[in-house]
Amino acid sequence: MVDAITTEIIRHAMLAAADEIARNLCRTAYNTVVYEIHDYGIGLHDENGDVVADTPGVAVFTRGNDIGVKNAIKFLGKEAMEPGDVFIINYPYWSSAHALDPLVFAPIHVGERLIGFSTCRVHVTDLNQKDPGYVLDSTHLSQEGLMMPASKLYRRGERNEDVFNIIKFNSRRPRHTIGDIQSQVSAVVTGVRRMKELADKYGADTVVDAMKAINEHGERLSRLALEKLPKGTWSAVDYIDEDGVDVGKLIKLKCTVTITDEEMIIDWTGSANDVKGPLNVPPGLTEAAACLIFKSITTPDSPVVAGNFAPLRVITEEGSVMHAVPPMSTFTMWTGILSGETILKALAQAMPETIPASSGGDVCAFIGLGDNPRTGEPWQDGSNEAVGYGATSTQDGEDGIMHISEPGCRNTPVEVFEMRTPLFLEHYGYRQDSSGAGQYRGGVGISRAYRYTAPGVGIMLSYKTRTRPWGIRGGLEGVPNAVILNPGTENEKWQGPSYNHLEAGEVLVNATGGGGGYGDPLKRDFDAISADVRNEFLTPEAVERDYKVIIDKDGVIDHEATAELRDSYKAQKA
To answer: Which of 115, 209, 477, 543 is 20 to 30 A distant from 361 in Cα terms?
Structure first.
C-alpha cells in the first residue's frame, strides 16, 4: 500500500509531466492545428491503458486514447510491447477517431516490467485520403486514407524506416505529416522519461500502487456525486446536418439517459442507422463524448482519471451512426463532437437549474488550402471557431467560447493566417443578434470572413446550421451557425458543411451560433438589456422583437413606450 501523501506527490508529478508533454509537442509540431489550436489529446495511463493524468486539449481524445491503447493491447498482446517501442494506430474502429487523428503511444517499462503508457493524439493534415484537406462525402473506409493498426514507429528505440516510408509515400504533405508524427514521438518519449524518473525515485511498486489509488479515488468521487443526482429516465432528440451523400437529409440523434443509484446509462438506441456518408462514429468516440458530459456534471473540479467513468454505461446499436463497424465511413467525426449536447438536452429535463441551455453547438471548423503565390509552395491552414454558450439559471451564457468538446483548444490568430497564407481576414468579431433571448440570454457567436487573394479551397465543417440551439424554461432559441459564400453580392450563398473551390477575390464567412436563453425574456433586467445594446451584442430591433423593449442605439430605454408594447403583447398572448 502507498500512503496518501506519496500518492498526491506522484499524482501532481504526473500532471506536471502531462503538461510538459504538451509543451514539447507544441514546440516541435509543424502545423498550426497542433501548436496554435491545441488539437491534441495527451495522457499518462496505467498498465491496462486507463488514464491517470492528462492535460487539456480536445476533451474527447483523452478517453479515446484509453480505448485505443486497450484495443492495441488486445490486438498485439502486452508481450509484444517492449522497452523503447513507440506505436501508431489510426484504424478508426479501434483508435476512437478518424484516420487523420493518429494515436501515438509508448509503453513505459521499468527494466522489462510494463507499468503504463504515454499517449499523444494530434490531427495531421494528410494521409492520402481521397480529398486534400478533409473528406466530406466518403462512403467506405477505403476512401479515407492510410490505415495503421498498432504499427511500430520505433522498435526498442530504433526508428522503423519501413513504417515511416509507408507514411511518406501515402501523404500529399509528407514533410508536415512526418514532422507532426515525430513531434508526437518526442511527446510520448517525454512521458516515458518522466514516469521512469518517478519509478527510480519511489520504486515501481509504489508508482503502480499510486496509479491504482488515484483511479479508485476518482471512482469514489463520481459515485458520491451520482448519489446527489435526480433518479429517473429522460429522452431527447436532436439533428445534425446532412452527411454529404444524402443531401438535405437530417441525421437523427436520439439519447435516453437513465440515472440510478449505481450508474448513469446513456442509450443511443433509436438514432439513425442508415447514414451513408462519413458522419458515423466509432463506439469509442461515442463513449468518450459521453464521458465528457458525465465528468462535467459529476466531478468537473478534479483532473480526469479513468475511475471517474466507472459508474457510466453507454449503449449503442452496431451499424448505427453512433456505432460504426467496418467498412462504414467515419472520416467526418462531427457526430461524436456534437452528441454531448443531446445528452445535456435530455438531462435538462431533470436538472434545469444545473444544465445550461444549448450552445451554438459546433466547433465550426475552417480549413483552407492551395498554392501560395508569395512563396510558390502549397499551403494548408485552418481554425476552429468559438460559439456562444447557453444561459444558465443564474447567468448569461459566455460569449465566443470554444465548444464544450474542446475546452483546452484555441483558434488561429488573424496574424498567423495572413503571414502564412494568401488569405486576407476582412472582419473578425462578435456576431450581433445571435444570442437566444431570456431572463438570462445565451452567449453571442463569432463571425470571421476569409477573402482569398489567390485561387484555393475553403472547407467548412459546420454541421448545425439547420437546427437552432434550444433554450430552457421559456428561453428562446439561439441563431444557428451559418456559412456564407460571397456575402452582399449577387453570388451570395448560404451553406452548411461544404467543400468550396474559390477564385481570387471570393469571400467565405464562418458565422457561429449563439447560445439558447434561460427563462422568460420579459423578466430580463433592463440594465442588462441596455448594456447589450451599448456593447453591440444586440440591436434595438432585436430587443424590441424578443424582449418587448423600446430602446435606442445608445441603450436608452423608453419606459413608457415599452410598457405600452408589453401590455399589447400580453393582451394578444391572452
So the answer is: 543
Cell 519501413 sits on residue: 162
Question: If you ran DSSP here, which 8-state letter would residue 401 be given?
Answer: B
Judged by DSSP in three states, 182 sits in: helix
- Distance from C-alpha of 213 to C-alpha of 555, rounded to nearest angstrom: 56
Q: What is the reported pTM?
A: 0.95
Strand order in 423-430's β-sheet?
A: 423-430, 446-452, 507-511, 482-485, 493-495
Q: Tell me, what's the pLDDT at 480?
A: 98
Alpha-helical regions (H) of 273-361: 283-298, 334-338, 340-347
Using CA atoms, how far apart are residues 441 and 274, in angstroms rounded to an integer?
37
d(CA 287, CA 96): 9
pLDDT tens-digit series, residues 188-203: 999 999 999 999 999 9
Distances (CA, A) of 532 to 351, 395, 488, 539: 28, 14, 26, 8
Beta strands per DSSP E along 182-316: 232-240, 251-259, 264-267, 312-315
Which of 114-118, 406-410, 428-432 has the lowest average pLDDT? 406-410
| Residue the block writes with cell 501523501 | 5
Q: Which phi and psi angles does 46 have, rounded to 5°?
A: -80, -175
Residue 313 to residue 322: CA distance in whole angstroms: 14
Q: State the greatest distance between any 2 C-alpha atoms of the chain, in Å, as a whole number.
A: 81
- Rounded CA gap, 379 and 393, in Å? 45
User: Which grid cell sits at 406?
Assistant: 474542446
* pLDDT tens-digit readout, 426-478: 999 999 999 999 999 999 999 999 999 999 999 999 999 999 999 999 999 99
Residue the block writes with cell 507544441:
26
Where do we find the cell 456505432? 323
Distance of CA 400 to the CA centre of its chain: 15
Single-letter amino acid code for the residue at 267: D
Whole-number Cα distances in Å, 33 to 308, 381, 542: 29, 7, 36
| Amino acid residing at 529 | I
Instruction: Kindly state the helix (H) or strand (E) to which residue 205 belongs, with its residue range.
Output: helix 204-227
Name beta bridge partners: 190.
Answer: none
Closest to 53 in 3D by CA, of 193, 211, 217, 196: 211
